[in-house]
Amino acid sequence: MFLKNFSKMDYSWKIFKSVLQDYKKEALEKNQPFGFAFEFLEMEMQKKEQEMFAEQRDVDKEGEAILNISMTQSVASIRKKGKRVRNLRSVMLLKKRSALQRKIKLVRSRGEGHRRMS
Q: Which residue ranges in the chain fall short of pLDDT 50?
């Protein structure tokens, strides 16, 4: 996993890191201070690498979840069930309404639709 993540790093990032390490070695050999700016850059590079590794871990976990068939099937079936219930309810309401409309039309066509006044 480490090699896979490392290979995906930007090449300019790798070059910058190697130049910084070479400069640090030269400074240590000559007993010169490394410098605050370079130490700051080194710390920022470590933070960036940790963030990149964390992002890659998240991507790997998502990929595993997608490949896990039972997990994806359960989500799909839940969604389908929810849609079916809604569609079924609307279809039932339409059927009831159309049945009532037919009865009303039938009664009106026979002339029985008027109420008697007594």
A: 1-3, 72, 75-80, 117-118
Residues 62 and 66: their CA atoms lie apart, in Å, by 6
pLDDT reported for residue 116? 52
**Inter-axis angle of helices 11-29 and 36-67, nearest 10:** 140
Cα distance between residue 42 and residue 40, in whole Å: 5
Rounded distance between C-alpha atoms, residue 108 and residue 46, angstroms: 84
Residue 20 CB-density burial (10 A; 0-12 exposed, 13-18 middle, 19+ buried): middle
Per-residue CA distances from 24 to 13, 18, 19, 50 (Å) = 16, 10, 9, 21
